[in-house]
Amino acid sequence: MASLALNTTTSLSPSLTTIRSRLSPPKSAILRHNNNRCASRPISTLPALRTAGLGTLRPLVSSNGFSRAVKSRGRVIAVKASASAAAAGAAPVVPAEKKPWQGAAIQPLIASIATGIVLWFVPVPSGVSRNAWQLLAIFLATIVGIITQPLPLGAVALLGLGASVLTKTLTFAAAFSGFGDPIPWLIALAFFFARGFIKTGLGNRIAYQFVSLFGSSSLGLGYSLVFSEALLAPAIPSVSARAGGIFLPLVKSLCVACGSNVGDGTENKLGSWLMLTCFQTSVISSSMFLTAMAANPLSATLTLNTIKQTIGWTDWAKAAIVPGLVSLIVVPVLLYVIYPPTVKTSPDAPKLAREKLEKMGPMSTNEIVMAGTLLLTVGLWIFGGILNVDAVTAAIVGLSILLVSGVVTWKECLGEAVAWDTLTWFAALIAMAGYLNKYGLISWFSQTVVKFVGGLGLSWQYSFGILVLLYFYSHYFFASGAAHIGAMFTAFLSVASALGTPPYFGAMVLAFLSNLMGGLTHYGIGSAPVFYGANYVPLAKWWGYGFLISVVNIIIWLGVGGAWWKFIGLW
Description:
mainly alpha; transmembrane helix; transmembrane; SLC13A/DASS; Sodium/sulfate symporter
């Protein structure tokens, strides 16, 4: 790097002599030279020149890059390269680095906005209101933004709500109505529970117990969690509560205990596979029992109203048990092959886990409070129907105990950024999806599908297969299983029955699929944002593997399940 010292020639006006005398110590401008190109130091580094009354200075770089001039009030001061400055030991000054762009990623943002604009100006189909079509444009633009992530998910969702209010598509109250839905709050509360679970050390204690029993292989550890969750499923009718209140804290503790953490490059060691496996199997266990998911009784009620036949608890379990068990066995090992943990076996892990347990000693007071609170909350989830206490109220009771006892502080809850971000984007999607239904778009879609399939003249088996696929993959437009069931179940069951599908068989299949389709996205069922929010699995992989597992589940439930249902006389 070459240095420039300020030199004035005798040809300049006498006033410059005064300037030179005031430069004490001499001020230097810096010239960075590289391949005959230079960038001069900002003139603000020459304060003596400004105080000499020269006004605003402007650097002029010559074509050869080795000299420059400073223009002020029409006069030019020559500045030439001087070796004497370097010899005098003048330290080179490097220009300050330009701060990186802190805003949205431009290309994903353009893709999201373009999606909305294009659909906005597409002619509105007959039978669809203008408001419904505009909301669909905003909803799809938001979904594209959530996939491409020009901003964090909560920020993208907030922009979508803002657009819907700005365009008068939704009122403010309607746009933010999702924040009054209990499910997003239940999910946020689950993260606060996880904080206490890990902070007290109870999570590590239980995790080490699991590792000591099943930890010699990652696959064995995964299956122990999968079947533990399936055993609890019929007793806890909220998949959000099971996932967030019990299994997310446990799985996170297991990942940490095995050295798989978020943000340090060890996610694939165990956490990525385990999180995705526990999520995908949670939708399977939800489909196996009438009381395993909050919306399952709605399917049974709509079945009774539509075909006048009752789906009982035993009927549901009997039909679902075989395909359900097959899926619970196949899905973990399939993910183990296509999305494997880098650590597959750890023969010494059980012994090390037992040593860790010995070092932990007896349970601390905070651990005991945390364990008691968890048992109370789970008890309220199990017997909430009898006690008239819903899942989110039970979770609030549990969190209140943790806050009052100091096991978890409110400051720590406020610091759970993922919880608040998940609450924001999930509530936003619930609101927009709900109003798509209220504005009649879902009804129009269902009727269009019914007319299309009914006009193909196919056998009931082929017609029902098309209906099943349309019903299943339309869940990309829903942030709630209950909303999807309420909007489309009756219409699809009615047309399936009209086309010759055995009504009871058709109702059962649609009811099972109403759970399985939740595995498609990170917002399609209550357990999705819980496990995705742990940040072990990138969004693209979450959606990609979600689609792949959906195909596997459909094959198992319609193939193996179809044979089983034939055997038990369902069709």
